[in-house]
Amino acid sequence: MNQKRSLLFLAIAAFSVIAFFTATEGSAQIRRDRNRPAATPKPDSLVVTSADTSNAQKRGDIETTINYKAKDSIRYDAVSQIMHLYGDAHIDYGEIALDAAYIQINWKTNIINAEGVLDTAGVLQQKPLFKNGAETYQAERMAYNYKTKKGRVMGAVTTQGEGYIHAETIKRDSLGSIYGRHARYTTCDLEHPHFYIKATKMKVIPNDRVVAGPFHLVFADVPTPIGLPFGFFPSPRKRGSGVIIPTFGESNMQGFYLREGGFYWAMNDYMDMRITGDIYSLGGYGLRVQSNYTKRYKFSGNFSVSHTFIKAPENTTRGATTDQIVNYGTGSRDIWVSWSHQPVTRPGQGQFSASVNAGSQFYNQRNSTNAQNALSPNFNSTVSYRKSSPNSPITYGITISQSQTSRTQLNEEGEVVPAQQMSFTLPDFSFGVASQSPIEWFGGTLTGRWIEGIRIGYNLTARQYVTNNISAGTGLGFPFSTRQARDTLLAINGSNLSTIFRNARTSINHDIPITLGTVSLFKHFKLTPGVSYSESWFTKKYTYSNVPGTNMLAVDTLKGLQRTYQYQGSLSLTTNLYGIAQIKGKKVEAIRHTITPNISYSWRPDFGRPEYGFYQRVQRDSLGNTQLLSRFQGLEGNVPGAGLSSAISFSVSNNVEMKVKTDSAGVFKKVSLIDAFNFSGSYNMAADSFKLSNINVNLSTKLFNNVGVTLSGSFDPYQYVNGTRRNIYLINEGGFKLARLMNLNFNTGFEFNQQARKQQAESGAAAPTNLPSLQRTVVTAADYVEFNIPWTLSVDLTSNFTRDLLTDKLMNNATSAGINGSVTLTEKWAVNYTTSYDLKNRILSYTNIGITRDLHCWQMSIDWVPFGALQRYSININAKSALLQDLKIRRSGSATGRAY
């Protein structure tokens, strides 16, 4: 009787548990046989009837709610206290998530088992996928104790940062450390990786490091002799400091070298530092300090300082090189400073920004691996602060700028030698008040009346311009036709700073623009009057006198505050004219011609008259000829012009468009035939000769919707006799010669596969032009490839001509053609190329060829400059992952500075 009561009690308990879970699971179907082994997963052919979701809470060892569900069914064994989940099973337990084809939960032992399922082809599907915070494991089978937080995984793949660990067996302890047996470490994300580091034993401390026992490197399942007794691979979640492995190469100037070796210091989350050095076998070294910094919502930037010393070749004599970048006889010491600071724009806040690129004259030619820097003769630097308020018309700012240009000059032996011209603006202060209507000054309300178009503004600029370009004999910088002395460039050092600053040009400029508004005349014309006033203050003024018996001028400098001013008035009239030709053709509907004529009159007094004191007439030679010279010649500022100006200016702009039918019924589109065809000139009625100016003409159009053409030229309406211009119009010679073409500039370019180029630009595949200092390595065409674009091709042609007045012929000054593009040979092979050809001198300019091979987790790139001063090559095979960035093979060479 007691046995029957016990059996009845167990049956009632089992029925109650089943009823409870049936009610909790909603429509879950309990269709599994209780006698079926718990560890056997559901066959692949099982039919899914519904999705199951359930929450179960168990007091005691369970720390939080276990959420579980299964796509097919859930079965609970009340006697063994084991839960079976079949078909896309899923469990959530705090930060832990598990997905598998079959999951078993043992409430007695606190162990969760998971397995995949074989499909009809015998392939294991729905493998267990275990996630614990940022860690991920995928395996054939696995077991996890949610109480002790220990687990065991068979046939596992786990991710650690950018790396993947494959192992026969993985065990996880309660501290989160992972132990792998017969493990493989790789950054390749394939199930069967292309390469890996194979070790008998491996320990992984998540977000910290990977430690391996005896290991060796395996490529394409081929073991290599590269191995060590133990390995240490950092994998921190945050940035970490460490050693930077140098790169190896060779150049004719430096010999064999090791470059960019040193130490990376992650100072904090907002700033880092990279300290590297170079060493050259022919003698010399390089030192470099680079840093990136950022502050969220405030600013970001980078800074670098580089110093190099290259020993002079012992067997190279003066002039025995193909370029001028070798410092003959002595070693070359170069320094370069770069600083970029970008603020985050915030309304009403001051904006401090900096862009500094300065250093030794030939630093980039000797050391730069960037072709753009190596080929550029000019560099500019600017540090500025700007402040404006959205509720105030006042803006102000201060700027410090520097520019340097490579040029040539004569040395003491009369030889042409390279030199560097440097100029500084210390500082450039600006203050401005936006144009306002006087009605606003007195609290009036603007209602749109024409009088409200009268607006007055104010701009002030104060600057000091300093340069090392000193004119010998005069201390000025302006050209005299009678002066035989030449300009010199002083080396900037402590001994000549006083001379350089003594020749500084300081000025304060005031501009008061006055707008008188626009008046409509006869509905179709717009009349715009204007008045302007400007004033400049200088710290010096010059007085000239002829040296008796010579063609030289003596210059006296009067120091102190000197004032100049000028004013002028103008009147402009413009309108638009339209002409439409109705074609009504099959494709062309109509053609519209838009003409915009403009005529204006301006008047300015003759500020060269003696009563103003701005100009001085001096004797220029021993024959008694005189010349009018500005007493502020060469100074920075608004120096008034000499001569009365009463000029009529005219211009005509033309635009031609065509209305074309599209494939859609009743839909038209506009096609531009001529984007712009403009000509302009002026006639000065107050001039004593040559009243009509040159006529400037420019044309811009696009052929076949792809080929852009630009033409610009200047026509002179006067006659020339033996190269001398005469005050006689060319039309007076007879015939139809109205003007003579003096210069012509022509530019055209076309681009095939333009849509592919747009796609590349939108995807950001183009090479960046302004990289942070820590990323300034070899930037070549091979580094930026869009494999989805099959090919691109761009061609441009530029030419300019100038008329020789003696022969009366147009002479070709320069003509060059450039080609650049890319070809994707296969899904993995791509070629980029760029070159230009000087058609006049018949030589090739800078040429670069890049070849890239995508090796999935690796990349191969070849960069080749076949000739020129920057001739070089480099071959790189490297892992893509930043985690193994030092796992690479590099071979490079440079012929810069080679001897004959």
UniProtKB/TrEMBL annotation:
Keyword hit for Ribonucleoprotein: no
Highest taxon in the source lineage: Bacteria
Keyword Signal: yes
Keywords carried by this UniProt record: Signal
Region (Disordered): 31-53
Signal peptide: 1-19
Limits of the LPS-assembly protein LptD central domain: 210-718
PANTHER family found in the cross-reference section: LPS-ASSEMBLY PROTEIN (PTHR30189), LPS-ASSEMBLY PROTEIN LPTD (PTHR30189:SF1)
Protein name: LPS-assembly protein LptD
Organism listed in the record: Rufibacter sediminis
